[in-house]
Amino acid sequence: MAHAKIGIIGGSGLYKMEALKDVEEVTIDTPFGPPSDAIILGTLDNTRVAFLARHGRNHTLLPTELPFRANIYAMKSLGVEYLISASAVGSLREEVKPLDMVVPDQFIDRTKNRISTFFGEGIVAHITFGEPICTKLAAVLADAVESLQLPDVSLHRGGTYVCMEGPAFSTKAESHLYRSWDATIIGMTNLPEAKLAREAEIAYATLALATDYDCWHPDHDSVTVEMVVANLHRNATNAQKVIQETVRRLTENPPESSAHSALKYAILTPLDKVPAATKQKLELLLKKYL
User: Fold this and answer.
1) Which is higher by pLDDT, 65 or 232?
2) pTM
3) Element holding 141 (H helix, E strand)
4) Is 152 part of the annotated catalytic residue set?
5) Please, what is the end-to-end C-alpha distance for the chain in angstroms?
6) Cα–Cα dist 84/54, whole Å
7) Among 37, 100, 109, 214, the one annotated catalytic
């Protein structure tokens, strides 16, 4: 059985990892359907990692269409314990410039049409989510960014990621509202991804890559699609360097994460009362508690 302790989900612009060696594609069937694409297993500095293009390698899936449950379940089935989410975002703050990197520590969920849990169908669980990012994994990620001293890139530790439904971008009124909430960045994909990773007991952290200022900015109209696409490509190049350094650090010193036992006190339903079909469906998540 293929195995990887570290998983990477690549967002807009990051559809493959150039540095991966000994690459193999793994097609995984899950109880929640197929993931966004085949998962690419490869070696990064002697460490086996699993890479998934969030929107598919040809960017064919809208944010709302993403099979979030299948993506996380597939990573869990490969043994992933640490999940790095690389995500393109818009900036809600003047100081977060295009090409900057943010490692957020909070989320605001503005999605409307997504299933954000593995549970239901006869089993109830309520994970704690006050700290939605694994702080230890986030620290490793931020330290990796800082150590590389990438040109034209500033690191912002902490901040709030607003996750909107999409696919249209914000209205100006919405953008100003999010700024009034002291939010830092805005994107369309990291929820319910982070919630499902927590339910799967996977440590999760976001590497947010700013492509542009959201529409609140007075100079927004001067931003062209060509500029945003150029920033996506530059971000993807930078992200791969950060991910490689993060993987090296995680391999040398993997941190203990409270996410790895997130279900210990979260399941309210006695497991002997869970319907057999549901128990079988969720066996991958429940087996250490059965």
Assistant:
1) 65
2) 0.96
3) helix 135-148
4) no
5) 22
6) 12
7) 214
Contacts of residue 281, defined as CB under 8 A and 6 or more positions apart, other chains included, come to 31, 121
Among 212, 219, 221, 272, the one annotated catalytic: 212
Percent helix / strand / coil, the chain, rounded to 5: 30, 25, 45
The answer to whether 89 and 185 have CB atoms below 8 angstroms apart is: yes
Q: How far apart are CA 71 and CA 92, in angstroms?
A: 28
Is residue 136 within 8 A of residue 257, CB to CB? The reply is yes
Q: What is 6-286's CATH number, 3.40.50.300, 3.40.50.1580, 1.20.120.450, 3.10.310.40? A: 3.40.50.1580
**Peptide bond just before 98 cis, omega within 30 deg:** no
Q: What is the pLDDT of residues 82-136, one digit of tens each?
A: 999 999 999 999 999 999 999 999 999 999 999 999 999 999 999 999 999 999 9
Per the annotation, the verdict on 212 as an active-site residue is yes
CB 274 within 8 Å of CB 119:
no
Domain spans, the chain: 6-286
